[in-house]
Amino acid sequence: MTDPTRENFLAGLLVNLLVTSGITDPMENAIRIMETARGNDQGCRRERALEMAQALVSGMPLSYVLGKQTFMNAELMVAPGALAPRAETELLGVTAVELLRTLSAQRGAGANEVHVIDMCCGLGNLACGIANAFRPARVWASDLSATAVALARCNVESLGFSARIEVMQGDLFASLAGRGLEHTIDAIVCNPPCIFSRRLEKAGAKLLRYEPREAFDGGPYGLLIYQRVIKDALPFLRANGWLMFEIGQGQDGLMEFLFKRTGAYTPVEFVNNASGEARVAVAKKRRRITA
Ligand SMILES: C[S@@+](CC[C@H](N)C(=O)[O-])C[C@H]1O[C@@H](n2cnc3c(N)ncnc32)[C@H](O)[C@@H]1O
Q1: What is the dihedral angle through the alpha carbons of 18, 47, 70, 173, rounded to the nearest 10 degrees?
Q2: Which of 214, 223, 251 to mutate to test the pocket of ligand 1 (most atoms within 8 A of CB)?
Q3: Which pLDDT tens digit goes with each residue over 9-43?
Q4: Which CATH code for domain 80-284?
Q5: Is the CB of residue 84 below 6 angstroms from any atom belonging to ligand 1?
Q6: Strand, helix or coil at 187?
Q7: Is the CB of 213 under 6 A from ligand 1?
Q8: What pTM does this model have?
Q9: What is the pLDDT of residues 190-207, one digit of tens each?
């Protein structure tokens, strides 16, 4: 049984610590920490909750502190070594689910599964979120990082998606070659590393304190992985299959240029976030390359 007086005291202690350290949403964060620490016995609980609050104050992402996060209604295990999923990435997952639902409806009753690749999958948040929201989705997820792949596999298994999501390790599409997937993919989602290497050196110290460099470093202009994916996705996409990226603020013009110069995609369209910023780029593979 939990003692309400002790509970209130601990809650007050945590909120006070978080408020004085300038943490946003101190009350909500304190409640989530207390809930997570509840698994420990009464003696260890206060100690564990305070440790977690201290880690949050030191700048550790909340999902690392809690060891879990909900993404598109799927509860995921989260741990250092793979990017802590950002809430804004749900826009990419939700956009993909909407397009796949429309595609499935157009194909009509009795239509088979839809095929999706989650490239640069991290701990599998997009793959699991899409599979969770849309049952006909069969997903191949891949990442370079062994830690991310191990976590993604744990998430797939614990959510019961092993029959619908396969997780592979490799450099972009290398891990997908030779599996008979060429020309079968309806949609590729990708949230690639996109920060300029030099900017990461200068201003990224805070990010790199807890999260891995390979999740952020997009090469000299932040576009290296976008460029490679735009080119290397083509053999896998069906005609009219979608390539969808999460993009950084103000990257829409560059995206238009990168897609257009291949001559292989329809004009890129953008999905805006709640603040009206273009944060998802979507283009379809043309039936015929026009360049
Ligand atoms: C910005 S994180 C995205 C993680 C996850 N998809 C998400 O949305 O939160 C980028 C991911 O790309 C992976 N990555 C970087 N270079 C890669 C490459 N050449 N091939 C495959 N994955 C790569 C990183 O390991 C990292 O997990």
Answers
A1: 100
A2: 214
A3: 888 989 999 999 999 899 999 999 998 988 766 66
A4: 3.40.50.150
A5: no
A6: strand
A7: no
A8: 0.92
A9: 999 999 888 888 776 778
